[in-house]
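The instructor's notes for this session suggest beginning with a concrete chain rather than abstract definitions. Hand out the sequence below and ask the class to guess, before any prediction is shown, which regions might be ordered.
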Amino acid sequence: MESKESTMTAILLVTIISAVLGSLQIGYHTGNVNAPAKIIEEFFNVTWRARHNTSLPDHSLTFLWSLSVSIKDFGALLGSLGVKGLADSFGRRNSILIVNALSMVGASLMFVSKASESFEVLIVGRLLFGLFCGLAMSLNPLYIQEVSPTELRGAFATLNQVSFATGILLGMVVGLDTVLGTERYWALMFSLSLIPALLQYLILPFCPESPRYLLITRGQEEQAEAALRRLRGNSDKVLNELKEMKEEAARTQSGVTVRQFLMKRSYRQPIILVLIINLGSQLSGFNAIINYSTKMFSKAGFREAKYLTLGVGAVNVTFTVVAFFLVERAGRRRLLLTGFLSLALCNLLMTITDSILHLVPDLRSLQVLVVFFLISAYEVGPGPISWFIGAELFDQQSRPIAMAFTSMLNWGGKFLLALLFPPLLKVCGAYVYLLFTAMATLAFSYTLLRLPETRGRTFDDIAAEFRGAEGIPLHNKTGFNTFT
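After discussion, reveal the predicted structure:
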């Protein structure tokens, strides 16, 4: 068996790093808006007063700010719809370069919004950046998985989440009032994502296109072989991969419509798995903590809540790195099961601590630990794996639709939670975390019963197992019944 080191080449590493620069931008704009919220709200108020000679009513100001924050996720939901058309028409690499323009335009609009004295420009910039988010967070793992060797596929796909979490932490730090989250520099803060966007334009055009796309989707065998030779640098490995891709191409129908994707029987189990894993991940409490941790810690009585929120960001990055090293050793299935079970337990503890915190204030330190454990449970399994598991469960022609579906579920879950968590918290109080417990438990149960291990298996091998769903029940290599 070949070692992992023998499959690593300089061009492969550069390709992966340049691809995940898009995720860094997305994470940055996820983490940079919370700390300077009051300052940007005041900008809204000043702009309105200059136009109408009156201040914005509080409810209108709250609505405008909520719209400014959540419209990114709504834009991402819309952007997800374009993944298949772009990926199949222009290729994986070229599509990433095309959508990167949305990031640059969006960041530029956010930057000029202050100088133009228009909060509408800021909101439009956030919307355009959201379109980029929905497209990039599908195209990135799709491209990464198709250029990576089988034994490194999961680890490299996890780097997408490492980059995203790193971006969140950078955004949190830069957004502090001691850095750029000030009245004078907040617009400059929004423009910093232009740096990784420009780097991506400088590097990615020199990286190879996905060999699987070239051979299976476009039928360009010579170009696919040339791309593989650049990526692998090992002639024996190139020949073996070409043989595997040709075998997959022989069994792959040309073009899969959305209707065929939804109706084909062999796709039924993968679709349900992607649905439950992604909704279980996004509705497990992680996003509520990322969005509202500062308010949560302030309510618990911590004076410097923003620095505890930085702690949340640091834990987030640390455990995405842990997942990078574990995903090819422990496997996707085990990490998902461990993560979902831990998330369920953490949310149960959050319910208990939050409901009796007013009686026992000293429990606030325990609550911080529970929050940190919840973040680590999410990032060690469900967080990174939910973004790329769809690419492993489907064949070549249906993979872009699967990744669009994944992106819609992820961004739709984020949008719904951002919209519904504050009113749910008011209605349910501490018991809102029981809803997250239920979602994590459902995801754990279905993963336990239905998900095959995909580590170290070729795309065709995994697809063949699901094709077996049209016939008799299968037992996969780990010995459990995949379909019952």
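Then share the key points. The first helix runs from residue 4 to 7. The chain is about 75% helix and 0% strand.
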